[in-house]
Design brief:
Heat Shock Protein 90, 4-stranded antiparallel sheet, alpha+beta, Helix Hairpins, about 450 residues
């Protein structure tokens, strides 16, 4: 268990403030230490200079007066303002007025005591101690220490107040981000942060945040569109299946009640047609579902003119009263999924055969980088207003039972091949690249 956990700051603003205060405190304390030590060294050096000067003065004075008794030496030194202590060889101690009466010199004279001192011997062997008070030095250092403590506490308190205010201003964009995120969570997905030009880092953060929101909004829009498409697809599929299923049910009911062999044969044929219609619709729905699941086609070099010829040959047997022509120009080989392209061309040719008066044309042409397959018929064509909608699902102009999925499936296959399917100049044109780009 971490006992310091309750002491941890609870907000980014507090952590930033305390971190700044810790740095300021460290720097101020380091400055205080440097100033104190520098001044102490300077004053101790001055104290040594004073002692040097007093020792020199004492030596000169004693040299002038010659040998004197210890008590006379002490008196002469006191007259010129030099505090001194003399200890004779027998152990007698003479001190000037105001000097401490040491009993055991110099053992009790300490470097950090109230006096600084210098020692030298007189001619009779007595020990002479020249003293100077440390009081001024200690008082100055103590005053400096007091001022440093007060100044440091004041400066740290001021730094805390200023850094707390500064962190509030600096972290305002973070609060803006949080507020914007909360509004977006409440459903206002159009909310964005205002762009900032005064700070590169903040501008970069705002740009990245707004870009993320744009991507999320696009993803949400795509998701909603996909959901709407799925619902519409299910509704349209149910609607498309409702009629043939109802027809099958009614035909079966009539078939069970009928005793006439001729009527039963007619109902059986009708039932077979409805079942075939449902089978074709289900196959188309499954194909659309596979396209929506983005199943990757299998690409192999394939002659598209051979696929077109096979499709046309198959439809000749289905519509023997129509005339089908196939024409190929240039190199018609492309990397495609042969099965998928076969299905797309079958849908296009089947659509043309239902609307043609009697003639269907299929033209395959190799071009630079692409192969185009054009399917045309001699029917009335597609009105300009219907060119866009005919590629939508379950949209049909066929009154003979078409599902409205053939053209959307063909376009989906084309797009899966990085190609396209369009209607221009009275023809459906399937355009596929020669080489698939993975």
């Amino acid at each position: 268990m971490n006992l310091l956990a309750p002491l941890r700051p609870t907000s980014l603003r507090r952590r930033v403030t305390l971190s700044g205060v810790a740095i300021v405190t460290t720097l101020v304390l380091a400055f205080d230490v440097v100033v104190y030590l520098s001044l102490r060294d300077l004053m101790l050096s001055n104290l040594e200079d004073v002692l040097d000067a007093r020792e020199q003065l004492a030596r000169e004075l004693l040299a002038e007066v010659g040998p004197l008794p210890p008590e006379e030496v002490s008196r002469r030194l006191d007259e010129v303002g030099l505090r001194s202590v003399i200890r004779t060889v027998p152990g007698a101690v003479f001190s000037s007025e105001g000097a401490p009466a040491f009993d055991r010199l110099p053992a009790e004279v300490e470097d950090d005591g109230p006096y600084a001192w210098r020692e030298f011997r007189l001619q009779d062997g007595s020990q002479l101690f020249i003293l100077t008070s440390r009081g001024g030095t200690d008082a100055t250092l103590n005053r400096l220490l007091f001022l440093e403590i007060v100044g440091t506490v004041t400066l740290v308190a001021l730094a805390y107040a200023l850094l707390d205010r500064a962190s509030a201003v600096v972290l305002r964009p973070v609060r803006d981000v949080a507020g914007t995120a909360r509004r977006i969570a409440d459903g206002r997905i159009q909310e964005r942060l205002p762009l900032r030009d005064d700070d590169l880092e903040l501008a970069d953060m705002v740009s990245a945040f707004n870009g993320m929101l744009d991507e999320l909004e696009d993803a949400l829009a795509h998701s909603q569109a996909a959901e709407a498409t799925s619902r519409r697809f299910l509704a349209d599929a149910a609607h498309q299946l409702r009629n043939p299923v109802a027809g099958i049910r009614a035909t079966v009911a009539s078939l069970l009640r009928s005793d006439d062999p001729g009527e039963r044969d007619r109902l059986t044929d009708a039932l077979a047609r409805e079942v075939a219609r449902v089978s074709r619709l289900l196959s188309s729905l499954l194909r659309v579902a596979r396209l929506d699941s983005l199943e990757a086609p299998t690409f192999r070099p394939t002659p598209l003119d051979d696929i077109a010829a096979a499709v046309v040959e198959h439809h000749r047997t289905l519509a023997p009263l129509h005339r089908f022509d196939v024409r190929a120009e240039g190199d018609c080989t492309a990397e495609v999924d042969a099965t998928a392209v076969h299905e797309a061309l079958s849908n296009l040719v089947d659509n043309a055969a239902r609307h043609a008066e009697g003639h269907v044309r299929v033209e395959v042409a190799g071009q630079d980088g692409h192969v185009e397959v054009a399917v045309a018929d001699d029917g009335p064509g597609v009105p300009a207003a219907d060119v866009g909608p005919i590629f939508d699902r379950f949209v049909t102009r066929d009154t003979a039972g078409g599902s409205g999925l053939g053209l959307p499936i063909a376009r989906g296959i084309a797009e899966a091949h990085d190609g396209d399917l369009s209607y221009r100049d009275g023809r459906f044109v399937l355009r596929l690249p020669r080489v698939h780009r993975a």
